[in-house]
Amino acid sequence: AMLRLRLLTWDVKDTLLRLRQPVGHSYAAEARAHGVRVQAEALSRSFREAYGAQRRRFPNYGQGRGLSSRQWWVDVVKQTFRLSGVQDESVLTAMAEKLYHDYCSAHNWEALPGASETLSQCCRRGFRMGVVSNFDNRLENILCQCHLRHHFDFVLTSEAAGCAKPDGRIFEQALRLGGVLPRQAAHVGDDYSRDYRAARAVGMHSFLLRTAGQGEEPEVPPEHVLPTLSHLLGLIEK
Fold this sequence. Notes:
Elements: E1 7-10, E2 17-19, H1 23-33, H2 40-57, H3 59-62, H4 69-83, H5 89-102, E3 109-111, H6 115-124, E4 128-133, H7 139-145, E5 154-157, H8 158-161, H9 168-178, E6 185-189, H10 192-201, E7 205-209, E8 225-226, H11 232-236
Parallel strand pairs: 1-4, 1-6, 4-5, 6-7, 7-8
Antiparallel strand pairs: 2-3
């Protein structure tokens, strides 16, 4: 039976957009521009450590803790470089400001194959469309610069929602924004617990984008799995 869907919600990172290169490479290039030599691999490791610690200490970009998401990120970038041996505070500040700005644009982000075409087809079919993403407030601008924003009726970030996936409340906000019941909506994302399971927990349908080489989660029926984004309409209209 064809699903009677009226709203499609979308994860962004690694579903619609991906980084053009690993974080460590971008950070190393920025360091070189400031006359600082640091290995990209070391920076990637330091970034994972700094980002992980910051996320545990101040979840969801410091929401409700008096911290702006911009300050949250500037601190992560500085700490990443500190862990890689860079100590000069003025250089750290300059690099952090520049990188915060660079990650706000198509400079560091690109659309995944099939993203633009799939979104266009979904819009032509008359679906209402929204974004539900664990992202800070730069997302609106990033989507504009990557020429995807016009597909969506709304963009709901975890920063704006005040809670992050897999918290069901972010999906409930999206359903209110879309003006539909849970069973009239489906979520598309690449993360098993934050996207696939979390959307189903509030009564939505969901599809898991699983590119080649990802682990197999046994609970996902094959008709919910997308090998690529272009498989979506075929599954919805089955």
